[in-house]
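Incident review: delayed structure delivery

Summary: a single-chain prediction request sat in the queue longer than the usual turnaround. Root cause was a stuck worker, restarted by the on-call engineer. No data loss occurred. The affected request and its eventual output are reproduced below so the record is complete for anyone auditing the incident later.

Affected input:
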Amino acid sequence: MIPQRHRPMQQRWWARALAWGLVAGVSAIVFFLYQRPEMLIQLSDQLWACF
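Output delivered after worker restart:
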């Protein structure tokens, strides 16, 4: 009897689609935040207030 090689489990298509959707969503949010410079200034002020 010849031993069979175990194939790695194929990733489910929906998990890959969900990951790409999350990447696209985060990228879109970052893009829209860069369109509002006052938001970035407020965010940096809040960050520096922690120190």
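Verification: The mean pLDDT is 84.
Action items: add queue-age alerting; document worker restart procedure.
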